[in-house]
Design a protein that fits this description.
Blueprint: E1 15-21, E2 28-29, E3 34-39, E4 44-48, E5 53-54, E6 65-67
Antiparallel strand pairs: 1-3, 1-6, 2-5, 3-4
């Protein structure tokens, strides 16, 4: 099982907002495929899957503010 973390997009980044998931539970995911959109105090960006497999769960809902490196 591969865990997905809130990425740290800069040295000063402490938290990010998960704007929306791009995948649904049960979807196939390929490594490096965009799986979510996040927003920091400076940018909005897509974050990529760390590995391939089936998307099993969402621990954080769209719109949540999450500390960096938290499993989401």
């Amino acid at each position: 099982m591969i865990e997905i973390f809130m990425p740290k997009a800069g040295m000063d980044m402490q938290e990010g907002t998960l704007i929306r998931w791009l995948k649904n539970i049960g979807d196939e995911v390929e490594k490096d495929e965009p799986i979510m959109e996040i927003e920091t105090d400076k940018i909005t960006m897509e974050a990529e899957a760390p590995g391939s497999g089936i998307f099993l769960s969402k621990l954080v809902d769209d719109g949540a503010v999450v500390p960096v490196l938290t499993v989401i």
